Amino acid sequence: MESKNKNEANLSDLTKRFLEEVERMGVSFYNIAKSTGVKEAMFTKIKRGIQEPSKKFLSKFAECFPDANMKYIYLGNEKNNAEHDINNEAFNDYTYRFLETIEKLELTDYKVWNTLENLSKATMSKIRRGICGVSMNTLQEFCQMYKVNANYILTGKGPMFLDNETSHSSLSEKDVEDLPSPETAEYWKRMYETTVVMYEAQFEDLQRRFNALNKSVEEIQDLFSERRKAV
């Protein structure tokens, strides 16, 4: 099958892996340029094989996009590493209940990714196909937007929604004001519990990602050290 990229023959292995990872993440070059502070025109040169992603740029890219598999970009190892395992674990647990809740709310995928700042159309498609799991940032925004119980999403325990006696889609300010005092207190209690659970989960997720990234950095350093010794 003919490659979609006519310049693929001119691309270095590093460039190919970088472009593959960008496609996997579903992020645009515009957003990458905006986040890293480089000119968007640079990516045209990269895609045409005129230049490689520099080490300085890749370092900034890794800082701005912690979900990126930098070990794969640098070394070309198989993606079945700790970071990939984390995504699979997230898909098996969090993502299954995330999709289940979407069905319960009778939401379309279009409405979900169109209303959540941290979710793109491409990423939503990959989640549906089981390619990647839903991120903690997306889950936090989703739970706040649709009053979903984060404890249910993360652990499978408790009610799916913060208040099963009200509309699943949202609670307006007027709805909250009209609730009797005990129900209002219970609602805010659940909101507090949801926030705590979500931030705890985010911390644990970041810690796992940091450990995975740190391990990758150590392996890269060991590899460079071995190459220097060989020279």
Short account of what is shown:
It is built from twelve helices and no strands. With 231 residues, it is an all-alpha fold. It has two domains: 8-79, Orthogonal Bundle (434 Repressor (Amino-terminal Domain)), CATH 1.10.260.40; 82-211, no CATH class.
Report on the architecture of this protein.
- With 231 residues, the protein is mainly α.
- It has two domains: 8-79, lambda repressor-like DNA-binding domains (434 Repressor (Amino-terminal Domain), Orthogonal Bundle), CATH 1.10.260.40; 82-211, no CATH class.
- The chain is 68% helix and 0% strand.
- It is built from twelve helices and no strands.
- It has helices at 13-25, 29-36, 41-47, 55-64, 70-75, 82-105, 109-115, 121-128, 136-146, 150-155, 173-178, 181-230.
- Helix 9 packs antiparallel against helix 12.
- The longest helix has 50 residues, at 181-230.
- It is globular, with a radius of gyration of 21 Å.
- It starts with 12 loop residues before the first helix and ends with a helix.
